From TrEMBL:
<dbReference type="GO" id="GO:0005886">
    <property type="term" value="C:plasma membrane"/>
</dbReference>
<feature type="transmembrane region" description="Helical">
    <location>
        <begin position="68"/>
        <end position="87"/>
    </location>
</feature>
<keyword id="KW-0812">Transmembrane</keyword>
<feature type="transmembrane region" description="Helical">
    <location>
        <begin position="93"/>
        <end position="116"/>
    </location>
</feature>
<keyword id="KW-0472">Membrane</keyword>
<feature type="transmembrane region" description="Helical">
    <location>
        <begin position="36"/>
        <end position="56"/>
    </location>
</feature>
<protein>
    <submittedName>
        <fullName>DMT family transporter</fullName>
    </submittedName>
</protein>
<keyword id="KW-1133">Transmembrane helix</keyword>
<dbReference type="Pfam" id="PF04657">
    <property type="entry name" value="DMT_YdcZ"/>
</dbReference>
<dbReference type="InterPro" id="IPR006750">
    <property type="entry name" value="YdcZ"/>
</dbReference>
<feature type="transmembrane region" description="Helical">
    <location>
        <begin position="128"/>
        <end position="145"/>
    </location>
</feature>
Amino acid sequence: MALLLILFTLIGGITLSAQSSINGTFSRRAGTIETTFLTFLTGTMFLTILILFFGSGHLLNLLHAPKWQLSAAFLGTAYLMLTVIAVPRIGVIAANIAGIAGQLVIGMVIDHFGWFHSLVISFDMKRILALFFMLIALYFIYKGNKRSREEASA
């Protein structure tokens, strides 16, 4: 089962990179906020159909959730909009690596302190080293993209 979940997440990452690239290009034509709006409008329509046919019937429970949990919707919107802004300027891979590095940083902090009812998993050298290598990868990818862009414009 774990292998299947890893495969699903891998496919999710593939679709996220494709979406980032397409949205980044589309935002030049339609605008950043408009592109983000289209993504969420389409997602809303798709999820409405899924809820109608496969939902568990507990949609109104959203109204009873603690207010801090509702912030996740804003955070998702902010992530998408920031990615739409970044991709045309720094490229898909640099934007994705930066996003993953950000996820690792805050994920390590959340795990370490057990925020949001997560497991408590303390910082260790392996995690810090993994983050360090991710940041090095981001540096080299960004520098390579910048050099390629300069060579193309020369």
